[in-house]
Design goal:
Layout (H helix, E strand, L loop, with lengths): L1 E10 L4 E3 H4 L7 H8 L3 E3 L6 H16 L8 E5 L10 H9 L5 E5 L5 H14 L5 E8 L10 H4 L5 E10 L3 E9 L7 E3 L18 E3 L1 H23 L8 E4 L4 H11 L10 H4 L6 H11 L8 E8 L3 E8 L1
Parallel strand pairs: 4-5, 4-6, 11-12
Antiparallel strand pairs: 1-7, 2-3, 6-7, 8-13, 9-10, 12-13
Bound molecules: oxa(dethia)-CoA (UT7).
Length: 321
């Protein structure tokens, strides 16, 4: 038994911010950003919340799957930029879309969050607890980004992507692996938010996202090929059997490095980072939805979904479409 993806959806804020626009905020250039990252623009919320974007993506995924919100049994929201400590984003999305029968909760594994949530959905289905799930990655990272830090602000964008998955007897998720390394947490962190402790009258420092870009870069290029190979091994497949590698859209050069180490041609690594930048947990489902709607996914195709990020976390799942 496994799960298969029956529908995909995604949502972006209205406001697009080009590299050119960022040159008015920090000492950078369109050329530097494009050459070092492959990013040309990103979308930034002007009021759209994690729940707004997540709900839009979920509705589109349900529509794409031909399902109604009332049928959803499990609603998992992956996010590392929730608006509120409570209620969780998944419950806010549940209320917005009317998935009254679903059990809803959040999961935070940063940029690997959507993958970990998908694998969690698999585990619930495998255990016989639920037969379907709506899994969404939604982020408004622009709240966490230090817009004075040229080393990080050029990378990130806001958005959401969702999939509707259902129990299946063959195909679907064929194998996956997940890893976490908390000892490297300092490489990418956002601390100090929500620490205003009224009891002690403490005023928190505003915590923005801080990143050791080179460290994350080398972690991804070293760790992801091994993680993908491990997951392929679990599915009884090799890199040459893979039709498309749908990787977390962090940096074009990271994807080139991973492709090189897997000895796989870059043409099998679709990208949307040029348009949307790094949207953390929304990154993989946004890419997947784009491909699905362009008609580029065909039954029987082997897809690798793989991500990495703060934690540090990383994972890979092998899917038969
Ligand atoms: O979801 C995971 C999230 N994180 C990531 O994916 C980050 C992964 N890392 C990266 O993508 C890259 O490390 C960055 C794009 C963040 C940086 O690229 P890099 O090639 O590693 O550059 P660097 O940090 O080694 O910096 C090279 C130079 C430095 O100047 P000096 O010291 O050589 O004079 C930086 O100060 O580039 C400078 N620099 C910039 N220049 C223009 C750093 N950021 C910028 C910028 N514009 N935005």
């Amino acid at each position: 038994m496994s799960i298969r993806i029956l529908g995909t959806g995604s949502a972006l804020p209205k406001r697009r911010v080009t590299n050119e626009e960022l040159t008015g905020m920090v000492d950078t250039s369109d050329q530097w950003i494009r050459e070092r990252t492959g990013i040309g623009s990103r979308y930034v919320s002007t009021g759209e919340t994690v729940a707004d974007l997540g709900a839009r993506a979920c509705c589109l995924a349900l529509e794409n799957a031909g399902k109604s919100a009332g049928e959803v049994e499990l609603l998992l929201a992956a996010t590392c930029s929730p608006e509120d400590a409570a209620p969780c984003e998944a419950c806010q999305i549940q209320a917005k879309i009317g998935a009254a029968g679903a059990v809803a909760f959040d999961l935070n594994a940063a940029c690997a969050g959507f993958l970990f949530a998908l694998h969690t959905a698999w585990a619930y289905v495998e255990a016989g607890i639920y037969t379907n799930a709506l899994v969404v990655g939604s982020e408004v990272l622009s709240k966490l980004v230090d817009w004075d830090d040229r080393g990080s602000c050029i990378l990130f964008g806001d958005g959401a992507g969702a999939v509707y998955v259902e129990k299946c007897q063959e195909g679907g998720l064929m194998g996956f692996v997940q890893h976490s390394d908390g000892s490297q947490g300092e490489a990418l962190c956002c601390r100090g938010r929500q620490l205003d402790n009224a009891f002690f009258r403490q005023t928190p420092e505003r915590g923005y996202l801080q990143m050791d870009g080179r460290r994350i870069f080398s972690f991804a290029v070293r760790q992801i090929p091994t993680t993908i190979s491990e997951a392929l091994g679990k599915a009884g497949l090799e890199a040459e059997d893979v039709d498309l590698f749908l990787l977390h859209q962090a940096n074009r050069r990271i994807l080139e490095g991973i492709a090189g180490r897997l000895d796989a041609d870059l043409g099998r690594f679709p990208m949307n980072l040029d348009q949307v930048g790094n949207t953390s947990s929304a990154s993989i489902p946004l890419l997947l939805d784009g491909l699905n709607r362009q008609g580029r996914l065909h039954r029987g195709m082997i897809l690798v979904l793989s991500g990495f990020g703060a934690g540090l976390t990383c994972g890979a799942g092998i899917w038969k479409w």
